[in-house]
Amino acid sequence: MKTLSSIDADETVAAVASAPGPAARGIIRVSGSDTVEIIAALCGLDRNEIGTAARRFESEIALTETATLAVSVFLWPTRRSYTGQPMAELHLPGSPPLLELVLEELFRRGVRPARRGEFTLRSFLAGRLDLTQAEAVLGVIDAYDSDELKTALKQLAGGLSGRIGEIRSILLNVLADLEAGLDFVEEDIEFVSQQRLVESLSECRTTVAQLYEDADTRMHSTGRLRVVLAGLPNAGKSTLFNALTGRDAAIVSDETGTTRDWLSAPVMSGEFDVVDTAGWEESLAVDSPVNGISAAAQQQRDEQTVEADLIVWCSAANATPAEIACDAEKQLALAQRNLPVLPVLTKSDCQSNEESTLASMPPFGPAAHPVSAVSGEGVAGLLSHIGRQLQEERRGSRQLVGSTAARSRDSLRQAAELLARAIDAAQLAIGDELIAIEIRGALDHLGEIVGAVYTDDILDRVFSRFCIGK
User: Fold this and answer.
1) Cα separation of 59 and 44, whole Å?
2) How many CB atoms lie within 10 A of CB 354?
3) Could you tell me the pTM of the whole model?
4) Environment class of residue 384 by beta-carbon count within 10 Å: exposed (0-12), middle (13-18) or buried (19+)?
5) pLDDT tens across the length of the chain (470 residues)
6) CA nearest 263: which of 241, 244, 293, 280?
7) CA quadruple 359, 364, 368, 372: dihedral positive or negative?
8) Distance CA 129, CA 136 (A)
9) Distance CA 152, CA 197 (A)
10) Using an 8 Å Cβ cutoff, are 468 and 114 in contact?
11) Do residues 301 and 280 lie in contact, with contact meaning Cβ atoms separated by under 8 Å?
12) Dihedral, CA of residue 450, residue 455, residue 460 and residue 462, to nearest 10
């Protein structure tokens, strides 16, 4: 059986490119070396009038000896098309039987049925798109919300390709300088200084590491935004959970440490999920001396916190001075891990005096959102605040569509590791030959991401996920 990438790309192929089912308009896409001749014969177009520019023609297709079908023909007669070869689109009434009838006529004239993703594959092979842009086409089709669509469109426009292309350009220039220095090693000519070399490599590694972090995050994403409620024991997290979700799912008690598991439920608006976790009895350190059920609860809490799109840190308004100091320590631990945190002042109806509360203590007071889950005061405002911050956190943070993240994560990780080794070698001045080897390895991995380096297996895995007609 032929693989997708081993198919003759010059063969003329056709498929329905519009959505399945009846519609006012249906589209049949045709691409290949014989497109112009076949479409001209099918639609009765004058070959001499077609010319070389992309044009629209209004014509008819003879279905039987007496019946004809009006059709709009969009024709790209040269290689300046999406697929990089002569291409046409037939726009006609979106009746599935009519579309199938026209396809059968095309197949009778020697056209082959297109396989999954074959039109976009031809665009990639013709150099019209790189591999990340090809995956972005699928990302546009499969986007489940406006943020996913924006990410896919940005990648389709070359946002990711441009960043990786810039990194590869810098690395190629550095590699050229290193190899030139190796050619003239006996003349003791320095083509690039050690400082400049380390700066260039560090700049590239930082960008690659950021892309890897985004790819790794996408791989752990469930598609639903997750807001985790965190804080000291008895800080009012479970009560707030019930208020945000509109249900009494979490057990509420004045006894410290009641919550020993995590709960997840959608908020009343349904826009995101909120997660209730155990109180922070210990620090984030992996070697914390916590045992038994408590240890399992703390581990589950840490896992939920790390994977959160936003952490709502609950600080009780009636906290004691000792609890205030502990609260500050835990928030500092979160800040050191660069996790997205929204401070909330819970139990605002129980606030005692200013000397013993968080309300007047920076940085919690001015930044914290006061809320009383019991009276309902501030809950609606908190939901709005969470929604705005989630949008801010997501805006511009996702640079890869899901399929690109899955395919390129390992390549990005290995490229970052190779660049780190190259930086170490440059700082220790242990030899330009070793630095050049590490850079070449990083270039190969980055080339795999954009398709500058690829195998048939990679192409089959990418394009087999497409639907027919794309």
Assistant:
1) 7
2) 10
3) 0.60
4) exposed
5) 455 555 678 899 999 999 888 889 999 999 999 999 999 999 999 888 898 999 999 999 988 777 888 999 999 999 999 999 999 999 999 999 999 999 999 999 999 999 988 999 999 999 999 888 988 888 888 776 677 788 888 888 888 888 999 999 999 988 888 887 665 555 555 567 888 889 999 999 999 988 888 777 665 554 567 888 888 888 888 888 988 888 765 544 444 444 445 788 888 666 788 888 876 754 444 444 444 445 555 666 677 777 778 888 888 888 888 888 888 888 888 777 777 888 988 888 776 544 444 444 444 444 578 888 888 888 888 888 888 887 766 544 556 777 787 788 889 999 999 999 999 999 988 888 899 999 999 999 999 888 887 777 778 877 877 888 88
6) 241
7) negative
8) 10
9) 34
10) yes
11) yes
12) -20
Cβ-contact 348, 372 below 8 angstroms: yes
Residue 188 has a CB neighbour count (10 Å cut-off) of 7
Mark 58-89 as b/e (b = at least 16 C-beta within 10 Å). Answer: ebebeeeeeeebebebbbbbeeebbbbbbbbb
Tell me the CA end-to-end span of the chain in Å, nearest whole number: 21
CB–CB of 110/68 below 8 Å?
no
- With residue 88 as reference, give the H or E element that holds it: strand 87-94
CA distance 207 to 167: 8
3-class secondary structure for 376-396?
CCCHHHHHHHHHHHHHHHHCC
The amino acid occupying position 275 is V
DSSP-assigned states of every residue in 172-210? HHHHHHHHHHHHTGGGT--SS-HHHHHHHHHHHHHHHHH
Report the alpha-carbon distance of residue 200 to residue 380 in Å, rounded. Answer: 49
CB neighbours of 103 closer than 8 A, spacing ≥ 6? Answer: 14, 15, 16, 28, 113
Please, how many CA atoms are within 13 Å of residue 213, restricted to the half-sphere of its CB? 11
Nearest to 176 by CA among 451, 456, 455, 439: 439
Task: Give the residue from 159, 76, 161 showing the smallest Cα distance to 119.
Answer: 76
Question: Looking at 203-325, which runs of residues are DSSP E strands?
Answer: 226-231, 263-266, 273-276, 310-316
Contact indicator for 263, 245 with CB cutoff of 8 Å: no
Amino acid sitting at position 28: I
